[in-house]
Write a structure and sequence with these properties.
single chain; 387 residues; mainly beta; 5-stranded antiparallel beta sheet; 5-stranded mixed beta sheet; 3 helices; 6% helix; 28% strand
Length: 387
């Protein structure tokens, strides 16, 4: 089921007027009694296996548990991956999808080309606002109209200017009477790490009202639902405690706000609006030397020294690199940042390094990620040059 159909089915479930959509309120699947609860959260963590220093990643239940998951797959996460992570927030019942996603219009209607769908709108109302441009004024009107121009100077659709308050039209290129695209409403669901509200990619994040606690053969735990999928726009800040945030209008069909209990126990008492039980911590800012190992000997006197970070770095903070030669400050080098701002390359100037000499490269705590979170402690890599 694609995202647009999911949205239509969510609207249908709210109004109970459209046939053909699954009844997700079955008592055997969902838990509609009381406030909606976060039952589980899937995320990626970085970890090391016993006896090894090599870093690996895996998807786990960072909040909540599932009877089919092994113990190693479900635990509190203290090293959530800061790059390439996504979060599947699994709910115990349906939420009102209209407060989670907007539909795409044919042109910019306010700050972007997306518009909210009125709570009482049905798929038929969407179809009335997806008609041809010349008939829109007669079909897309009333309290359930969507994609209305909200700009004082009007909205442009091709060469036509749509006056404020008039319909711009739902983007429906395939002419099926439904929106071709949706995106997550900014601020509806988010992640806050420390005091930082992590930017969320609204186009890639979405609400999926399908699914239950039975992992299907295709998708497994990543298909449990209903669920909100959150994808950070530019990763997560390093070494910080994080929690989920929900807008005050993110509610179930009884109008109750989202909450969470310790461990995601849906049978425990839950205070509507309180999701503080959902928490995790991100991994620290780390670097891997790809040119030589710590304390390596016989290192090239001219080849650059390269270090790869586990996330993007702030370009203004790479000056926090120092080098010593035989224990004395050494300035014969330059530092460059490349490859998605993750790779530090130290190039030796002049004729290169002295022979058979001990050098130490220190990545100081002045080096920070793009959220201005520093490496927790200075990282020193020592090496000895060859003849």
């Amino acid at each position: 089921m694609n995202r647009v159909l999911n949205t239509v089915c969510a609207l249908a479930a709210t109004t109970l007027v459209v046939a053909g959509c699954t009844d997700y309120e079955s008592a055997t699947n969902l838990n509609p009694a009381g406030p909606p609860m976060v039952q589980q959260v899937r995320m990626k963590e970085t970890y090391t296996t016993p006896g090894s220093t090599d870093l690996s990643t895996r998807r786990v239940f960072g909040f909540g548990t599932h009877p089919d998951a092994a113990d190693v797959e479900q635990h509190a996460v203290t090293s959530a991956s800061v790059s390439g992570n996504s979060f599947r927030v699994i709910m115990d019942e349906l939420l009102v999808g209209n407060n989670l996603e907007e539909i795409r219009c044919r042109s910019t209607v306010d700050t972007d080309a997306y518009s909210r769908v009125p709570l009482t709108a049905t798929p038929d109302d969407i179809a009335k606002c997806a008609t041809a441009q010349d008939v829109l004024p007669s079909t897309c009107k009333g309290a359930n109209a969507t994609c209305l121009c909200e700009l004082d100077g009007g909205c442009s659709v091709g060469t036509e200017t749509i006056v404020k308050g008039a319909p711009v039209g739902v983007d429906d290129k395939n002419q099926d009477g439904a929106a071709d695209d949706t995106h997550l409403i900014a601020g509806s669901v988010g992640i806050k790490c420390g005091t930082i509200n992590v930017p969320i990619d609204g186009d890639l994040s979405y609400w999926n009202p399908s699914g239950n606690q039975q992992p299907p053969a295709m998708g497994g735990f990543e298909a449990l639902g209903p669920a909100i999928v959150l994808i950070p726009q530019a990763g997560l800040p390093t070494n910080l405690p994080c929690q989920l945030t929900f807008g005050t209008d993110v509610v179930d069909k009884q109008g109750e706000r989202v909450c969470a209990t310790a461990g995601g126990d849906i049978n425990a008492a839950c205070t509507a609006g309180d999701t503080s039980a959902v928490s995790f911590k991100t991994e620290p800012l780390t670097f891997t030397s790809v040119s030589f190992a710590n304390n390596q000997t016989g290192v090239s006197r001219t080849d650059p020294a390269t270090f790869v970070a586990n996330t993007a770095l702030d370009p203004t903070a790479i000056a926090g690199i120092t080098v010593t030669q035989g224990g004395v400050a050494f300035n014969g080098f330059t530092v460059a940042l490349g490859t998605m701002n993750k790779v530090l390359t130290i190039t030796w100037t002049g004729a290169g390094l002295a022979a058979n000499t001990v050098y130490a490269v220190t990545i100081t705590t002045q080096v920070k990620d793009t959220f201005m979170q520093p490496v927790p402690a200075a990282i020193v890599t020592t090496f000895t040059t060859g003849a």
